[in-house]
Specification:
Length: about 325
């Protein structure tokens, strides 16, 4: 049987319904009479089991040259630049498996050639470079690649953000798209249990590694309270999901700005008015959920500099629902 979903996700989808299904199947006279009474209690798993792969607070880690003494490190050399790893260097005895809702932050320089494995747990692995050179991971029966190849001898900040049904990878603050696998076209969204029993299998310098359970904040994003927004067309008051231009900046991928439903024609202008001068080096655009109507396919970006509006970028985008990023030469200061 060919599966287009992870066993972890299949379990999470069906477990909560098993109680009701079992009651109906067995015809138990102890079955709850109402749906509310059939809601699963807070603890439903067998003692000593952890199918969610939750991580205790004390098992989170921050590894760097100052803290490495607290971990079981083998053949890891502490240098001024960081922790020097050869292919047989390891840090062992870590958390093992870390389920979704965690963030793994890496500050790393790869100096070796070929496949570079960052961490392992059982048969699952996280790669700085897989056999094809891509950032990737192997989890259960799937090998997932991201469209980024790390340059040798270049330092990178990498964040692996795990959520239920969603795994995101950021390199130096820029989100990296997953490479679609024709062999599993239906595997569009998946959870990742981070394989963190052992760090090792790469040649390079680990400046730091941190496992956190705090929400990920992209360091490239300008905080929302630093600017106001306006648009030449917006549907007001709109709905909970769409309408006002502020919904394009609320960090919720399920809400979106919509031009006035009737009477207005493109092109439209969206303005971000910075409350103070900022260094700006890019813009990210996420189309409405599912794409379709209203996807921006051509753009011009202007910035106010020395009192003048100056075009800093223009181009076209494909008509799909993928996130798009325009990288700019650093503009400082602009408003």
């Amino acid at each position: 049987m060919k599966l287009d979903s992870l066993l972890y996700d299949i379990f999470k989808r069906f477990f909560k319904s098993m109680q009701s299904t079992a009651e109906r199947t067995w015809g138990s006279d102890r079955a709850a009479k109402t749906y509310a009474d059939r809601i699963q209690p807070a603890s439903v798993y067998a003692p000593q089991s952890n199918p969610d792969k939750t991580v205790a607070e004390e098992d989170l880690f921050k590894i760097n040259p100052e803290t490495v003494k607290d971990y079981l490190a083998k053949k890891v050399q502490k240098t001024e630049a960081g922790l020097n790893f050869e292919k047989d260097s390891t840090i062992e005895g870590l958390v093992g498996d870390a389920g979704p809702s965690h963030v793994l932050k890496l500050d790393v320089t790869v100096t070796g050639d070929g496949q570079q494995t960052f961490s392992t747990s059982g048969n699952n692995q996280l790669y700085l470079a897989d056999k094809d050179g891509y950032l990737a991971y192997t989890f259960e029966q799937f090998h997932i690649q991201f469209n980024k190849k790390l340059e040798k001898n270049k330092r990178y900040q990498i964040s692996v953000v795990t959520k239920p049904q969603v795994t995101e990878v950021y390199v130096d603050g820029e989100k990296v798209e997953r490479i679609a696998n024709p062999a599993n076209p239906r595997l569009a969204h998946n959870s990742l249990v981070l394989p963190l029993e052992t760090i090792g299998g790469f040649k390079g310098i680990l400046h730091s590694a941190e496992l956190s359970n705090e929400a990920f904040v992209n360091p490239r994003l300008i905080p929302n309270d630093h600017f106001t927004v306006s648009a030449t067309s917006q549907e007001l008051p709109g709905t909970n999901a769409e309408g006002p231009v502020e919904k394009a900046f609320d960090n919720d991928p399920n809400t979106f700005w919509h031009s006035k439903w009737s009477g207005h024609q493109a092109p439209f202008t969206v303005a971000m008015n910075l409350k103070a001068s900022e260094t700006v080096n890019g813009l990210t655009y996420l189309p409405r959920p599912g794409g379709g109507n209203g996807v921006v396919t051509s753009y011009e970006i202007y910035a106010q500099k020395d009192g003048q509006m100056v075009k800093v970028a223009s181009g076209t985008w494909e008509n799909n629902a993928k996130e798009k990023t325009v990288n700019l030469m650093p503009l400082k200061p602009i408003r």
